[in-house]
Amino acid sequence: MSCQPMISGFFFQSINFLERVFAEVARWNERVEKKALYNFLVIDLSKNIAGAYCGKLLAGYGAEVIIVEPSSGTSPLRKAGPFCHDRKDPEASIPFLWLNTGKKSITLDFDRADGMGILKQLIQRADVLLVDLGPDKERQMGLTYEMLKEFNPHLVVCSISNFGSNGPYQDYVAEEIQIQALSGMMSMTGETDREPLAAGLNICHYTAGLHAYTGVLMALYQRNDDGAGQQVEISMLESSLENIEIALATYLHTGKISKRGPHPGVPWKSFECQDGYCVVIAMPARNWSKAADIFDDPFLFQGKYKHILGRIADRLTYEEALQAQVIKFKKEELFLAGQERGLAFGMVINLAEATELQQHRDRNFFMSIDHPATGNLPYCGAPFQMSQSPWISSRAPLIGEHNNLIYEGKLKLSRLEIMELERRGIV
User: Which domain holds residue 419?
Assistant: First the structure.
């Protein structure tokens, strides 16, 4: 019996196996090259931080995000300072550059009928629409999910507003501080005998942006079931309540209202060091006794202070004694001493120090992006890392930079048609 057929069969099976392997490798490389969200088109009409941040995250992992800017005038974020090189230039607005990395830009006056017609052509091709014009204006302009699903049933419409699309506050205006005030957050922030304080950062805007991002991804995932889009509605006020966490849950479950004042734990605050401040807290609680190796004062670790309740009862006395010890250290020295003993100490550093931490260098968190209006500048990298879909680090667009690419490439308008729209101020 000849072995020729057996050899031939084995040979062809091996070839088939290798072809499958190479095909799978090619598909894997394609996924890596195209990123996690490479096949989604997002039209970004947002004017404020939350929507812009949502769009930034979508773009960072591969979605094609097109921001629609005014054909005349300047979009609000481009007017916002500070500006790079202290030059008040809409192309050099730091908030705009920061929140619009990886996006494309077109100019379009969609307040006019012809402009709205063009916008709806883009929306008809889109997977996601980000909009934050306010519930009333969105209804007036026909930019709600119920209106848009008639000609794009696959569309996910993410609407971001201060208070949501219904209720007595739906058309009220607000900035970050008003949202913090109305959420109850400010009532708990600050000293007991002083006025309520707002956090210095746009916490509510960024939280709303993260919720919008999560909602959009969930809607796109659910769309796999039947191809249908849906509305994703974000209320910044509701998003801000998530930041209050246990204090809100405590009130809802027990009726107890949290007030301004020190943290209930002792110690749990920043103490002055030789060169700044260090955060010293007795956490994890089981490790606080190890702080006796750091602070040379038996008073702090005597019997009645072994349990947190004893320290709480003598808060001022205990904190004064601890301050007398902390001042002997430099902040990084104390930070490391605590960490070496499993204590969650932290040093208070400024942004210049924070960006130079070796931790960030080792993880390549900061990266440089070149921009024609500002030159090469550092930016933050991905807010989370994915093993098979690296973050896309590309610059924010110039105003209307992609008009020809989008109008000719996607909408198939002729050059003459685009020139006529430009003449009329529509694009």
Answer: 41-246+388-423
| Within-domain flag for 256 | no
- Whether residues 198 and 139 fall in one domain: yes
Residues 38 and 59: their CA atoms lie apart, in Å, by 9
pLDDT digits (tens, 9 = 90+) for 133-146: 999 999 999 999 99
* End-to-end Cα distance, the chain: 79
How does pLDDT run across 10-48, given as a tens digit for each residue? 444 555 545 554 555 455 455 445 689 999 999 999 999
Look-up: residue for tokens 């109305």?
182
List own/partner pairs for 279-284 with CB under 8 A and 24 or more apart.
279/345, 279/346, 279/347, 279/348, 280/322, 280/326, 280/334, 280/338, 280/345, 281/343, 281/344, 281/345, 282/308, 282/311, 282/343, 283/343, 283/344, 284/342, 284/343, 284/344
pTM of the complete model? 0.90
Cα dist. 192→196, 197, 260, 266, 386 in Å? 9, 11, 5, 17, 43
Q: What angle do CA 201, 374, 79 make, to 5 degrees?
A: 50
Query: Cα 12 from chain centroid?
Result: 52
Q: What is the pLDDT of residue 73?
A: 84
Which residue pairs, CB below 8 angstroms and at least 24 apart, start in 282-285?
A: 282/308, 282/311, 282/343, 283/343, 283/344, 284/342, 284/343, 284/344
Q: What is the pLDDT of residues 206-238, one digit of tens each?
A: 999 999 999 999 999 999 999 999 999 999 999
Helix axes 203-226, 176-183, angle to 10 degrees: 80
Indicate the residue type of 109: D
d(CA 2, CA 245): 77
| pLDDT tens-place string over residues 269-318 | 999 999 999 999 999 999 999 999 999 999 999 999 999 999 999 999 99
Q: Is residue 281 part of a domain?
A: yes
Choose among 371, 132, 321: nearest CA to 236: 132
Looking at the structure, tell me whether residues 221 and 191 fall in a common domain. Answer: yes
CATH for 407: 3.40.50.10540
Does residue 14 form part of some domain?
A: no
Location of structure tokens 């499993």: 342
Q: Is residue 105 part of a domain?
A: yes
Angle at CA of residue 36, ends 31 and 41, nearest 5°: 110
